[in-house]
Amino acid sequence: DARPLASLDVTRDRGLFRENAAGQIENIYTLKVINKTQQPQRYRLQLDDAPEFRLQGEHTLSLKPGEILDFPVSVASTA
């Protein structure tokens, strides 16, 4: 059975962008993560091949079996 073990949808916040307290430009996204397994799972968020951007805040999610989580994420420019 090749059923996916997780599902991830990304929705960008309605605002164009904002400037954070450090003076960086950031965009806010909501991740909808679904654990499709019968076991608790941990997921680690990271940006690949994007050295000019970084994730703000928490980068690890823990979901119970079958849990659906809406998780806000901020991505800031380091340039």
TrEMBL record:
**Pfam families listed in its UniProt record:** FixG_C
Task: Extract the Gene3D superfamilies matched here.
Answer: Immunoglobulins
User: Can you supply a Gene Ontology BP term from the record?
Assistant: carbohydrate metabolic process
Q: Where is the FixG C-terminal immunoglobulin-like domain?
A: 3-77
Q: Cross-referenced InterPro entries, in alphabetical order? A: FixG_C (IPR032879), Ig-like_fold (IPR013783)
| Name this protein carries in UniProt | FixG C-terminal immunoglobulin-like domain-containing protein
Q: Which organism is it from?
A: Mycobacterium arosiense ATCC BAA-1401 = DSM 45069
